[in-house]
User: Fold this.
Amino acid sequence: MSGMLERHNAAAPLPLAGRRVAIIGGGVGGLAAAVRLSQQGWRVKVFEREVSRKRVGHSFILAGAGLKALMQLGLGDDAARCGSPLRAYELFAPDGTRLLTTALSSARGIRRKELLDVLEAAVPPGVVELGRAVDGLEYDADGVARAVRFTEGSSHEADLFLAADGIRSPTRAQLFPEARLTDVQVKELVCHVEDRALADLLGPVFRKYQCPQGGRSLGMLPSGDGVIVWFVQLDVGRWPGSIVGAAAIEAIVRREFGAWGGLVGRLLDATDFRESHTWTTADMDPLPALYRRNVALVGDAAHAFLPFTSHGVSAALVDSLALGDCLSAAEGCIETGLAAYSRARGPDIARVVAAGRTLRDRFLYPKRFTDEPAVPLVQ
Ligand SMILES: Cc1cc2nc3c(=O)[nH]c(=O)nc-3n(C[C@H](O)[C@H](O)[C@H](O)COP(=O)(O)OP(=O)(O)OC[C@H]3O[C@@H](n4cnc5c(N)ncnc54)[C@H](O)[C@@H]3O)c2cc1C
Assistant:
């Protein structure tokens, strides 16, 4: 394996079909990459540290770009059966007065588990290995990765390595030690409710209630089968201190939002706060590149966006398509393909990071913005 990249760079190009790719992480990014590269003839392995397909997590918004990517992966029909369409965004004041209604052209609320099931069903059997926690990569003397090493000591060789190991990616830290997540400025508390009557009242709408002074909001959206995922966002500057555990989350949510109008009171009463959790809302300046030699980053490992963008899942899907396309066009040279992938995704990542920061500022300091409120969703 040592020098394999060098040999392919120097010699006549070899087809990439049949070559081996090891993917670290079986989340949306890792599975979508596995779907694409399997379709292109790669010998794919996905190593996921979770030991079961319990698929924790709530739901997310899949924006137009993500749905288009699923269609290009051949999964458009499956995706259309998942979750709930979101036909409009509606903004309300805390007393329940409607401030804005904007049509959404193509967006869905989807449960994380459903999307993971759709993606995994599209990869050949045996590709995904559960309970395989990766400890790191092994490199040869030329800095070319040759194997993933597992925490229990064994290793697996491949030609290409994709790190889809999430927002705190250890692989990213190894490749780009200077990269840092930003300080958290907004706390997000997330929960879901199963209540068909309430979901029917909400309809196919992403609805948000926002304090006019900024820094405090509650959003809700349907994600199919009578499930509503909801979240609150709080300015860390005005609500300092950690909020850990269901009791603490319920206490602050009831204190800060309990008297709000519209559907808020009913939503909170229907909530089992034991399912709630606190979410990190840090983002990251765009990386200088999304690869080193034969190792590439995909999904949250490659970029971190603020939740105001609702774009993390869509971007992970788009990454996987771009990666497959660029490798196909690279005429047998992995490093050329990864460089093209990095160039192709860079501008869009920078655009979404910047858009997320503007949306955050609008949330924190609404009085600085005199135009119409913006939809918290980057297409
Ligand atoms: C448990 C969980 C729940 C989530 N719930 C929500 C939600 O409700 N709403 C929302 O908007 N977003 C949620 N997200 C984030 C969302 O899934 C991602 O932002 C987006 O889908 C991009 O996906 P990703 O594949 O890049 O990263 P992730 O979804 O974070 O997936 C990374 C995967 O890598 C695995 N992994 C990490 N380190 C290793 C290792 N060393 N070895 C092997 N495997 C490893 C993780 O177990 C995980 O499955 C959740 C993420 C996780 C991990």
